[in-house]
Amino acid sequence: MSWVSRARARIREDVDAAIARDPAAASRSDVVLNSPGLHAIWAHRLSHRLWQSPGTKPVARLISTATRAVTGVEIHPGAEIGRRFFIDHGMGVVIGETAVVGDDVMLYHGVTLGGRSLVRGTKRHPTIGDGVTIGAGARVLGDIEVGDGAQIGANSVVVKPIPAGAVATGMPANVRFPDLPGEDPYEALFREPALFI
């Protein structure tokens, strides 16, 4: 498969993920033209590729800066972002340089994946597992891990690791596990008011 074919497949995959997660999406063209979260993700994929080469790092930073100005989403080109990533609304999302985001992750507006250290050359930002949902305004700070399938409630502040499948809400975040084993995370949102996003 050529580079162009892979890029097209990735774009289709991103659009499909957006449509699946955004009930306001009217059509594929609506999502492609009007989703600042998707535009930020696509720009990041380009800037991240450029970030891999020392000679093109300045260009990568310019792309990320221009993208922030246009979309309100700031993703450092060094951040590693997985497949089918979706940012709903977008405005105010910040993802730091050493953040790692898994596949099938969803962020709402105002989320920060930030650092707690000023030491250069170290991992300063969180690692987010596959299938994680992070609610509006949440802050996940430092070199911590958020396990697969975890949910972080709106406006929560997370500074400690979150185990896979856990729910974290509050400031600072309290961690618990769903009361019903195997409960659909979407259905859990209606039982847990702190998760409303």
From TrEMBL:
SUPFAM superfamilies: Trimeric LpxA-like enzymes (SSF51161)
GO cellular component, one term: cytoplasm
UniProt keywords, alphabetically: Acyltransferase, Amino-acid biosynthesis, Cysteine biosynthesis, Repeat, Transferase
UniProt cross-references to InterPro entries, sorted A to Z: Hexapep, Hexapep_transf_CS, LbH_SAT, Ser_AcTrfase_N_sf, Ser_O-AcTrfase, Serine_acetyltransferase, Trimer_LpxA-like_sf
Pathway noted in the entry: Amino-acid biosynthesis; L-cysteine biosynthesis; L-cysteine from L-serine: step 1/2
EC assignment: 2.3.1.30
GO MF annotation terms: serine O-acetyltransferase activity
GO BP terms in the entry: cysteine biosynthetic process from serine
Top-rank EC class of the record's enzyme: transferase
Catalytic activity: L-serine + acetyl-CoA = O-acetyl-L-serine + CoA
PANTHER family, A to Z: SERINE ACETYLTRANSFERASE
Record family assignment: Belongs to the transferase hexapeptide repeat family.
Name of the protein described by the UniProt record: Serine acetyltransferase
